[in-house]
Amino acid sequence: MVSKSNAMAKKVLSVIIVPHTKTSTRTFAFTRRSLRAAVVGGSVFALLLVAFLVDYFSVGLIRQRYKALARESSVQKAKIADYEKSISRLGATIANFESYAKKLNIMAGLKSPDVLTAPAGVGGGPGPGEPEAPDGPVPYGGPPALTQNSIQSLSRKAQSVESNLNSLVGLFESQTLRLATTPSIRPAAGWLASSYGMRTDPFTGQYQMHWGIDISTNTGNPIVATADGIAIKVQTDKYLGKNVTISHGNGITTVYGHMSAFAVKAGQKVKRGDVIGYIGQTGKAVGPHVHYEVRKDGRPVNPFNYILED
């Protein structure tokens, strides 16, 4: 129950509290000044409370965002560490490839960087004042940190090694073709009856040059091509009897004489080891054998220089 005193109607506000029990009532008197102060104080308190609550919840949101960012940062750090390890392993692999490419260059006989499309892994000795390169893979310490420069450096190294290896692949492919067309095996299984060089001719008894080797074996045994090529002559004459001439390219030809029968035709392509004819005694021959010649630019050379089996 609230009432105003007649004497102090303009100055005092009284608040009377009447309890439900039989105890006496209690009266509180407030002046307008104290009431205004209370209202102002309450308003200030309410504003401070609102500001505190807003700040509290803002700090809570910031704290949550900080925790989320901290977790994200931790994940990113872990990923960066993995990337650095991967970059380090990649660097080690590239270093091993560089070492391997250098060995391949040495095997290929490449001595000058001008032969390659890229300088990496070029064979040959060190330059003036440079230390000797150690054998085996080059140790790699890995990049100090995952930086743009380190990644670009590895990228350049990888491109350089790739270019070098591509050059080597092309070289070895051409070498493979060259090796395939270079005589390197015996034309027949048997025993050597006569070598390349001066000898006494079994028919005339004169001491004269023998331009090939004679391999004796049983009649009908196979005679094989000693390298890839094309049979350019399949003919019969009074000296070599039934004979085959194969062109292997690079100025190299091979001749097989005294055959009993042919197994190829003129113009036919053959591979090393293909049967081209059979042992016989046709032409000027004492017994069954194959007369085998190797010619370089039309001139006979020692066939033993082209036989890798011995």
Topology:
Blueprint: E1 2-3, E2 12-17, E3 26-31, H1 32-108, H2 148-180, E4 191-194, E5 197-200, E6 207-210, E7 213-216, E8 222-224, E9 229-237, E10 241-249, E11 252-262, E12 269-270, E13 275-279, E14 289-296, E15 299-301
Antiparallel strand pairs: 1-2, 2-3, 4-7, 5-6, 7-14, 8-13, 9-10, 9-12, 10-11, 11-13, 11-14, 14-15
- This entry's quaternary arrangement is single chain
At CATH's second level, what is the architecture of the largest domain? Distorted Sandwich
Major sheet characteristics:
10 strands, antiparallel
CATH topology of the largest domain: Glucose Permease (Domain IIA)
User: CATH superfamily assignment of the largest domain?
Assistant: Glucose Permease (Domain IIA)
Q: Helices and strands, in N-to-C order?
A: EEEHHEEEEEEEEEEEE
Low-confidence stretches: 1-9, 111-144
Q: What's the end-to-end separation, in Å?
A: 132 Å
Structural domain tally: 3
CATH class of the largest domain, named: Mainly Beta
Q: What proportion strand? A: 25-35%
